[in-house]
């Protein structure tokens, strides 16, 4: 089970020998491998990346190449990033929604 209470959307089939790393997503410690994007790291453990801003729909990225803006998430210190094209780093602290905006898509 995952941070989101459901199995991960992705399954790792290859490249399992890379260096492990950990990060936090919505306060939950998750694990991935060096070289993974933020999107890959989150979706290995969670069923979705975030909720839509103005509805109950769950989002998990769409184009996977940084063009559609479906994978924007936030760092705990405020800046947002594109999960599909940002390399995951050890110790990153990420949020599915901004604590500074309303409506909060995490609720």
From TrEMBL:
Keywords for this protein: Oxidoreductase
Molecular function terms, GO-annotated: iron-sulfur cluster binding; oxidoreductase activity
Top-level taxon: Bacteria
SUPFAM superfamilies given in the database record: 2Fe-2S ferredoxin-like
Record InterPro entries: 2Fe-2S-bd_N, 2Fe-2S_ferredoxin-like_sf
Protein name: (2Fe-2S)-binding protein
């Amino acid at each position: 089970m995952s941070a989101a209470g459901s199995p991960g959307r992705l399954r790792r089939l290859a490249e399992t020998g890379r260096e492990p790393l950990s990060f936090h997503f919505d306060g939950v410690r998750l694990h991935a491998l060096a070289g993974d994007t933020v999107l890959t790291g989150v979706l290995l453990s969670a069923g979705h990346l975030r909720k839509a801003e103005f509805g109950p729909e769950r989002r998990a990225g769409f184009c996977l190449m940084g063009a559609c803006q479906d994978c924007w998430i936030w760092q705990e210190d405020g800046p947002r990033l594109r999960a599909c094209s940002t390399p995951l780093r050890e110790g990153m602290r990420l949020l599915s929604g901004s604590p500074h905006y309303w409506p909060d898509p995490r609720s």
